[in-house]
Amino acid sequence: MNRLLYIKASPRGSRSHSVAVADAFVEQWKAVNPGAEVAVRNLFEMDLPPFDGDRIMAKYNIMHGRSHSLDEKRAWTEVEAVIEDFASFHRYAFAVPMWNFGVPYRLKQYFDIIVQPGYTVGMNEKGYFGMLEGKKAFVAYASGGTYAEGNPVETWDYQSTWLRMILGFIGITDVVWAEARGMLLDGRESRRSDAVVRAAELARGF
Ligand SMILES: Cc1cc2nc3c(=O)[nH]c(=O)nc-3n(C[C@H](O)[C@H](O)[C@H](O)COP(=O)(O)O)c2cc1C
């Protein structure tokens, strides 16, 4: 069954550039995959469990082969529900703004929840391996400035570099993207339109 999870990491609704680009991708993907299921998770509107004391203890219990207390077990059940939801899809679309050169804190929180030993990351004699295999992701990036190669601040982009790394860490290595960069600079309209066109193109073969 064709199932795509659309994850929105901008709280800006219809003003969001990353959401506009990701919307173009998702609409085109729906058009070429009639009958496929698309589910949306708006990270700033949904209830995400905090990754706090009991949940961290539960994570370490799993890593060290210890059993959970009742409170830890209860807290971990909520983590498992978020992981189960994410892992049940085989295609992903992300709308991701740049915030302070990285990703918005709700997206970081989301990954702090879903990156877990034995669920999305395994360990063998060679080290860690990602457990979510055979999946693909599209990412729409937006930022106020530009970080292209040759730009003096090109190394300040911890948004796309981190997201690609963490997706690869859990096994999602097939990742494509469209970028709406310079959204606080002159000429933003044409750069955003180019990103929308690229997103729709990418959706056709996804
Ligand atoms: C809290 C915050 C931090 C930001 N930090 C950066 C930054 O480090 N670099 C940058 O180029 N733009 C930065 N911006 C600008 C946003 O990346 C830009 O407005 C982008 O369009 C946001 O994506 P959205 O339109 O999908 O919400 C920041 C915006 C906010 C609200």
How does this model look, in words?
By secondary structure, this protein is of the alpha/beta class. It is built from six helices and seven strands. The protein has one domain (3-204): Flavodoxin domain (Rossmann fold, 3-Layer(aba) Sandwich), CATH 3.40.50.360. The chain has helices spanning 17-32, 53-63, 70-87, 105-114, 158-169, 188-204; strands spanning 3-8, 37-42, 91-97, 121-124, 127-130, 136-142, 174-180. The structure holds flavin mononucleotide. Residues 10, 12, 16-19, 97-101, 142-145, 183-184 line the site of flavin mononucleotide.
**CATH fold-level name:** Rossmann fold
- Report how far apart the termini are: 15 Å
The fourth-level CATH homologous superfamily is Flavodoxin domain
- SS elements, strand count: 7
What's the overall average pLDDT, rounded? 97
Question: Total helix count?
Answer: 6
Which key terms come to mind for this protein?
Rossmann fold; 6 helices; 206 residues; alpha/beta; five-stranded parallel beta sheet; two-stranded antiparallel sheet; binds flavin mononucleotide
Give the structure's gist in a few sentences:
This protein has a single domain, classed as Rossmann fold (3-Layer(aba) Sandwich). The protein has 6 helices and 7 strands; from the N terminus they run βαβααβαβββαβα. It has helices spanning 17-32, 53-63, 70-87, 105-114, 158-169, 188-204, and strands spanning 3-8, 37-42, 91-97, 121-124, 127-130, 136-142, 174-180.
